[in-house]
Amino acid sequence: MTSSPKPSRKLLAVASALSVVAGSMTMIPASFAANGNSSLPAASSAQNSNDECRHFSVSATQYQGLPGQYQLAYAPATSTLFTSFSSGRPPILTGGLGSWNVSSAPSLASVYQFPTVDFTPRGATEPSGKQIASPYGVGYDEATGYVWVTQTRNSTVSVVDPSTKKVIWTSAEGEVDHPREVRIDSATGKAFVSGSGGISVFDTTQHTLVKKIEFTNAKGEPDTAMNMHVDSADGKVYVPTLSAGTLKVINGKTLEVEKTIELHKDSADIALNASDVTIDKSLKEIYVSSQGDRKTGANSGVTVYDLETGAYKKSIPFGKQALAITSDEARDLLYVTDYGTGNVGVIDARTGTVVSEVSTGATSGANDVLVTPDGSAYALARSTEDASPIETNYTIDPATGEYRTSSTEPKGKDNADSPITPGVMVKLNTTIKTTAKSASQASSEELVKTYTDGAKLYTTKDWTKGETLKLRGEGFKTQDGKGSVVAVKLNKGKISAKEEPKLNGKEGNSAGVWAYIQADENGNFTAELPYPTTANSSLKDDLNTGDQISVALLSGSMVENDTPRGGEALKATVTEQKAADTTCATVETSKVAAAPSGVTTQYPAGTPLTIAKNDEPTPTPSDSAKPEPTTPAPSDSAKPEPSTPAPSDSATSNEVVHEYKDGAKVYFPKTWEGEKLTFRGEGFKTKDGKGSVIAVKLNKGTISAKEEPKLEGAEANSSGVWAYIKADENGNFTATIDRPTVANSNLKEELKTGDKVAIYLLSGSLTENDNARGGMAVEYTFTTENQPKKDEAKDAPVNPSAPEPSAPAESKDQAKDQSKAPADSLKPSAQEKGNSASKTSASSSQNTSSTNGSNSSKSSKSSLANTGASGVLIASGLGALALVAGAGILVARRRKA
Fold this sequence. Notes:
Elements: E1 25-27, H1 30-35, E2 52-64, E3 69-75, E4 80-86, E5 95-101, E6 107-113, E7 116-119, E8 129-132, E9 137-141, E10 146-151, E11 156-161, E12 166-170, E13 182-185, E14 190-195, E15 198-203, E16 209-214, E17 229-231, E18 236-240, E19 246-251, E20 257-262, E21 274-280, E22 285-290, E23 301-306, E24 312-317, E25 322-328, E26 333-338, E27 343-348, E28 353-359, E29 368-371, E30 377-381, E31 392-396, E32 403-406, E33 408-410, E34 417-419, E35 424-436, E36 446-450, E37 456-459, E38 462-464, E39 469-474, E40 485-490, E41 502-503, E42 506-507, E43 513-518, E44 525-529, E45 548-554, E46 568-575, E47 590-593, E48 595-596, E49 607-608, E50 610-611, E51 655-659, E52 665-669, E53 676-682, E54 693-698, E55 721-727, E56 733-738, E57 756-762, E58 776-786, H2 790-794, H3 812-820, H4 832-835, E59 839-845, H5 854-865, E60 870-874, E61 881-885, E62 887-889
Parallel strand pairs: 2-48, 6-49, 12-50, 28-47, 38-46
Antiparallel strand pairs: 1-43, 2-35, 3-4, 4-5, 5-6, 7-8, 9-10, 10-11, 11-12, 13-14, 14-15, 15-16, 17-18, 18-19, 19-20, 21-22, 22-23, 23-24, 25-26, 26-27, 27-28, 29-30, 30-35, 31-32, 33-34, 36-37, 37-39, 39-44, 40-43, 40-45, 41-42, 45-46, 51-52, 52-53, 53-56, 54-55, 54-57, 55-62, 57-58, 58-59, ...
């Protein structure tokens, strides 16, 4: 089984490649893994097999589970594992949904009891009693906190809200047929249910059937869709068919089958019976598990296909009836269950070798397996032969449908009582040690940069084509002694990833970041940077031998109290690949028996689920619907800026305000009228009470100036900066920036109606002891009547002595008049003609709030005027200067020869 989104440590950012060495982590965009060509895999992929051998050690612990366990789902926010269970053949008299806390040793927290329904034996026309509408497949929706289950015996799907203990929705008759598995794509709000006849797709908010995707076999008969893998990042759904022997690749947005892959059979005349699928983007491979022939074991195992072309690559024979499969992409491992023997296989995906076979203790019935973000794998299997019966109230009386406490159920011959025995849950831990095959890179490591605070960076000065660049850092600490967060840029961000990396699941402040690195508590890290190619980056042509790549490490603005660092760390020279010196020894498959935990599972009293009334509206997904985290809440330094700051008393009626965690506030006009935008800030101070230095970016730096601004005459750390602002000694500033045009920026066409420009104000890495600030401050949506005349914008004159802006207007008409002509207060009359040629406006949205308050506005303005400071403002695109009260924008313009 593959969960959605699949818990994998490699997908820490946006399915990013993760390297954890000495406690550090590197977050790298998914496009590196998904789009690289075959010679350029991403960070922890097969490229590493060129210079290292991997050695595996597998241990397993057995825990007492629930009777008749089927599938697993995981809620990462609460470290909760959900297990569905339905004991024996129909009628289902013992069953439900288990909720396990696995933050440490697994413990059973709750068991949810489902409503009962009539049971009609096969061939009969009237019910003979009751059975539980018990779950088989289970999926967790991270967006809502709801749990989806398939009730296979009833041909229904239900949604459970654990917080209210209600079944809030159940599918209508005919919407699903004998459903097997449910996978949730929280990104698109869709639930995919496999079963007889194909896939049923539901809206996870409206709980409506969106589409049925029908599957047929070679005879044109309905075929069964088996277990699925949902790739939210790339918008694809992978699902094998039972009879046709194919793998369907479905577009997650259009819900159309975009590719059908014919599955390979080692024994051509024997049925394949494909059952599950998973992928590894870094290796660019698809893995399909198949049960094969249940008597002989022929065709049982895993077949491997190219992720991009679907071409068959190899077979990995395993077990007698390989059933479920999942991948630990962070370490290129596969876990596959063998229903025929009750074992679980651990496979090195890089080599296709079964490195370990783990006995769960059960002699058959290994059903499902799942990997959690910490790299642990959990597998479910049937009871062991020596299992003792358990007494719980998870069983119903078949005549009345009432739940009762019992250790038996009438399942034997002539409905004789049979003992209810628990299945097993096994936790697997795989440790990987590596030894070098070739010391070509390690031997040439050297100290390349020592920062002013003493932090040191070690790496090689050669970057081999197609291989990662290994970085090692020491002493990268914040000012309060924690591990720094470091952004890595190549060629100052001009080589950017096709898919932007994320920092702790959030968008960063700046475009052009190649990777983020989190140093450990000692300030140390080891990280691997993927090699940039046309497939994974903005490069138009692949790099040539001898080309140089500038590598810069930046810190200070991404976490509170971080130490500002920047500048080029090294210029790496592109070199040709070197052949590996040695080969790795053949790996022997280890045989591992799961050791009993020694802990007796405590079975809590069942929690009845009630059915939401027909007239009771389905609750809107909200934070209250999500389980409360059991892990500690993140610190303030890890929390994003508020998306809707509280209104400030000093905001005027025509202003919106964005407030930062340290209390600094920036005020923007509600609309951007004309060529210029004037805004002001208060409280932008460093930790030692000086004025902050702030970088202004538009659309995270994707809109950049034709002539890059400089900070106090020198090149800064990052490309894409539109302007720099220096706050005065009181932390205040008033600044004006140009509206981006084709003439002054990298825009290919002028802004048009509906285009959005987001303004980001970033501080922390530009001056010592500055406060880390970031995130979007305001976003404007443009409406354009006439585009500006290029010549007039280009030739805007310099005005070194303009008066400070007039007081804010107190009515809408006054605001409109003033905002249309901010240049009148900042420019001589010589510019008026040029500005009258354009009527461009933009309204603000997001990350802002406004309030009335003319009195407080006056006091705010007064505080700015009384600073006695003045500064220089230069709009970065054009180099035009203007004086404003309280601060300056620092940009140097290159002189033409």
